[in-house]
Design a protein that fits this description.
182 residues, mainly alpha, 8 helices, 0% strand
């Protein structure tokens, strides 16, 4: 028999951490940000933004999150809330960029890095992105979201993609992963 002191502490759900953050728990807020930062950034990138614009959008999304923390009524749906806010901010940024007719310089590799490693990484990344682009848009977006969340909230993801909850598990486990191969 395992003593209570020897048992690992249960990991709080995202909804539980959100409720704690709404009650002023700074560690819970930091945990939410740490967990969902990759998700927010990738949602911004998925809307066609370059890395710099995606970083700006992600920062704006987190600012909106902190400013709206006490007003979010469904703590368990925080990932969906952030996805929606990030998409909207990204769309506004993309439109603003189009009006500015701004052309970004290419992302040049770091000259101090190992060229062999860089080439191998580039080839693998090109293969991954080429295969990702072959997927249906819903599948692409699902993979971008689910790949960066340890315990995805299928309800929030389904709401953000306007799909039934049951279809998310099917897409994630059956349809999408089998189509990517490098």
């Amino acid at each position: 028999m395992i003593a209570d002191a020897d048992r690992p502490a249960a990991v709080p759900t995202l909804g539980e951490r959100m409720r704690r953050a709404q009650n002023g728990d700074r560690h819970a807020l930091d945990g939410i940000i740490d967990e969902l930062m990759p998700l927010v950034w990738n949602v911004a990138r998925a809307q066609g933004l370059n890395a710099d614009a995606a970083s700006d959008v992600a920062q704006s999304a987190w600012l909106a999150f902190v400013e709206s923390l006490s007003q979010i009524r469904a703590p368990e749906a925080v990932a969906g809330w952030l996805i929606t806010v990030t998409k909207r901010l990204a769309w506004h940024e993309r439109e603003r960029s189009r009006r500015d007719d701004h052309i970004d310089p290419p992302d040049w590799p770091d000259p101090a890095g190992n060229i062999d490693d860089a080439v191998a990484d580039d080839e693998q990344n090109l293969c991954l992105w080429r295969n990702l682009r072959r997927l249906e848009p819903d599948c692409q977006e699902l993979l971008r979201i689910a790949a960066f969340v340890d315990r995805p909230n299928y309800k929030a993801i389904a709401e953000s993609l306007s799909r039934p909850v049951g279809s998310i598990r099917v897409m994630r486990k059956v349809v999408c992963p089998g189509q990517l191969g490098c």
